[in-house]
Specification:
The chain is α/β, with parallel strands linked by helices. Helix content is 26%, strand content 26%. Helix 4 packs parallel to helix 5. The radius of gyration is 17 Å and the shape is globular. Bound molecules: adenosine-5'-triphosphate (ATP) and magnesium ion.
């Protein structure tokens, strides 16, 4: 097994499932249904990167505004301090100006010296780019741009909770992504419980079990020693 340097997510219990973290300079698709924790996960990846690992981060939102993102964050993290110290940049792009996206990404990455980049979400691009072929091209171009800039990137993407087999919306994300992390909401009795599964990770040995996770007081906690048991058929994909 080659020894690819890893980028630690810093999310409790997760890095050990991936042999130490996300392979450096790769693109990960973080896929899940509505409200399963994608944005929270993605923000933690950048927060921990800046706070604990000395890597600056760029969060590109196509959905919530910067104010909404800060307000909805379930943790008492001082994002403003990181932003003031230029370790973190959160920007909301106007998806109507998608022609400029590549230039914006390049200048924002250079401005922040970002090593970690989040795009939240690539599904939202569909709202503004009519043709699926154009969305695919845009996603591929964004990925190529981030590769040239040598960033480790996380793209969030929405899948329908009831169809976990359908990982990508546009039929291209799962192929361009070097890895896929699935966030699931499993029915257990009358309750929905959070679970995480590393579905693919190119060039890395990784855990393939579904594990429970929860949104704790100070960050996400993945229970790496426990298996998530689901009453639904999500195991079958
Ligand atoms: N303090 C908290 N403790 C536990 N769970 C929480 C807390 N705050 C929010 N949540 C859960 O997190 C979910 C929202 O998380 P998040 O916004 O990260 O999900 P998402 O997958 O990005 O959602 P969306 O599909 O709207 O983009 C809420 O629906 C709620 O279930
Ligand atoms: Mg979200």
């Amino acid at each position: 097994m080659k020894n690819i340097p890893r980028v630690k997510t810093g999310i409790k219990g997760l890095d050990e499932l991936m042999g130490g973290g996300i392979p450096e300079k790769s693109t990960i698709l973080l896929a899940g249904g509505a409200g399963c924790g994608k944005t929270t996960f993605a923000l933690e990846f950048l927060y921990k990167g800046a706070k604990e690992f000395g890597e600056n981060g760029l969060f590109i939102s196509f959905e919530e505004s910067v104010t909404e993102l800060k307000r909805n964050l379930p943790f008492n993290w001082d994002l403003d301090a990181l932003i003031e110290n230029k370790k973190l940049l959160i920007v909301r792009y106007d998806p109507y100006q998608y022609e400029d996206i590549l230039d914006l990404i390049r200048s924002n990455v250079k401005e922040t010296n970002a090593k970690r980049v989040v795009i939240d979400s690539i599904t939202a691009l569909n709202l503004y780019v009519e043709n699926v072929k154009d969305v695919r091209k845009l996603i591929m171009d964004i990925n190529e741009q981030l590769g040239k800039l040598e960033c480790t990137s996380l793209f969030t993407g929405e899948i329908k909770n009831d169809v976990p087999q359908q990982i990508s919306r546009f039929g291209v994300e799962e192929f361009i992504a070097d890895g896929i992390i699935l966030l699931l909401l499993n029915p257990r009795g009358s309750e929905l419980t959070n679970a995480i599964l590393i579905r693919k990770l190119r060039g890395a040995l990784h855990d393939k079990k579904m594990h429970p996770f929860k949104i704790g007081e100070d960050g996400i906690i993945v229970y790496s020693k426990e298996e998530a048991l689901s009453e639904s058929k999500v195991h079958s994909f």
